[in-house]
Design a protein that fits this description.
Layout (H helix, E strand, L loop, with lengths): L1 H33 L2 H27 L14 H29 L8 H28 L2 H30 L4 H28 L5 H12 L4 E11 L5 E10 L4 H19 L1 E11 L4 H15 L4 E10 L4 E8 L6 H15 L4 E7 L6
Parallel strand pairs: 2-3, 5-6
Antiparallel strand pairs: 1-2, 4-5
Helix pairs in contact: 1-2, 1-4, 2-3, 2-5, 3-5, 3-6, 4-5, 5-6
């Protein structure tokens, strides 16, 4: 599966490299003979696209390497680094285009437009639109941020070429040169596209919450296993595109044996890996009391008191020893709470008033996949 994905990325990148080098050559020749700064910059921009494709191809090769002692979770995050590089190239290309355009405003040059230029630029626009759609389509198909980023970069090139054509038409009809001004405007859009790619990729590297719908599906799959009464604290660590290692707590009836729990967790791990390609490295266990009516009533009352407070989403993992007067549980508090620490103390205070004889030990928990 991984090798097929990398093959798609490499083939797409090679296609992009060849197409961009050819386009760059044609535009460089036209830019030289027409004295057009916009076309020359467009040629340089096509070269940066070829470089982006080379980076993507190298990243695909590295990310496909097997895990080793130094990187036991593989090399999948290499693709994020590649996407950062591509975003930087896009932003720099836009910035450079803006600088050159400003220079051309201060020291204007008279362009010489010819009919062949329109033909070349028209073909370039068509090719770039195709490349953009092709890269974005392949990027979504194999879940590659670097391919998608290259596709967005190609759309930026379309803007440059269209702007150049518009400027040429205006100059030929009205003898007003807008090249440099359009260059500044287009460069702003290109820089914006590069910065957005950088922000999005950095956010993924820092660690984003997992897709909520996916979390719901995984929890549903886990709870469907006989003996599981609830799934909580589902956490994923991302080590590259489609490379996830996670952990979860499950609640099971207190009458299950260690052997039954062992078999259950093995089945869950196998099913989640096969269905979602996610490896659960750890499955914690909460025992759900079913035989002690006093504990059952206590659990219901504590849960009711806690969730009555706004921003308290849930109480789970409840354990109580009515003889030793101890209770333990996890309390999930929303990230939207003005002060999670203050709310936690407030809830614990209310519970201590209700149960003054009990030693209450509660963990302030988080739903890492909160909507």
């Amino acid at each position: 599966m991984k090798s097929e994905r990398n093959a798609v990325i490499v083939k797409t990148s090679i296609f992009g490299i060849v197409a961009n080098i050819l386009l760059s050559g044609f535009k460089a020749v036209i830019g030289w003979f027409s004295h057009s700064i916009a076309i020359t910059l467009d040629a340089v921009n096509n070269l940066t696209d070829a470089v982006s494709s080379i980076i993507t191809m190298i990243a695909a090769h590295i990310s496909g390497k097997d895990p080793d002692k130094k990187h036991p979770f593989g090399h999948g995050r290499t693709e994020y680094i590649a996407t950062l590089a591509i975003g930087t190239i896009i932003a720099y290309a836009g910035f450079s285009a803006g600088v050159e355009s400003i220079k051309n405003i201060i020291h204007p040059k008279t362009p010489e437009y010819k009919n062949v230029m329109f033909i070349v630029l028209g073909v370039a626009v068509a090719v770039k639109v195709f490349l953009a759609l092709f890269f974005i389509n392949r990027g979504k198909k194999v879940n590659s941020d670097s391919l998608t980023a290259s596709g967005k970069d190609a759309f930026s090139d379309v803007l440059i070429s269209v702007g150049t054509i518009v400027a040429a038409v205006v100059y030929m009809i009205f003898h007003i040169s807008l090249e440099a001004y359009l260059g500044v405007l287009i460069s702003i859009f290109i820089v914006k596209a590069g910065v957005e790619i950088l922000i999005e990729t950095i956010s993924k590297i820092l660690g984003e919450g997992t897709d909520v719908e996916l979390v719901k599906k995984i929890k549903k799959t886990i709870v469907e296993h006989e003996g599981v009464m609830g799934a909580y604290d589902l956490v994923f660590n991302n080590y590259g595109q489609d490379i996830y290692v996670g952990s979860v707590h499950i609640e099971v009836v207190d009458t299950m044996t260690a052997n039954e729990i062992d078999m259950l967790t093995r089945h869950i791990t196998k099913d989640i890996l096969e269905e979602y390609n996610i490896f659960l490295s750890a499955i914690g266990i909460y025992a759900h009391t079913t035989t002690n009516q006093e504990v059952i009533k206590l659990r219901e009352d504590v849960s009711h008191i806690a969730v009555e407070h706004e921003y308290v989403n849930q109480v789970h993992g409840f354990y109580a020893d009515t003889k030793a007067k101890e209770m333990r549980f996890d309390m999930v508090i929303s990230f939207d709470a003005p002060s999670r620490a203050e709310l936690y103390e407030h809830v614990i205070g209310d519970l201590k008033k209700k149960y003054p004889d009990y030693e209450i030990s509660a963990s302030m928990d988080s739903d890492f996949n909160e909507i």
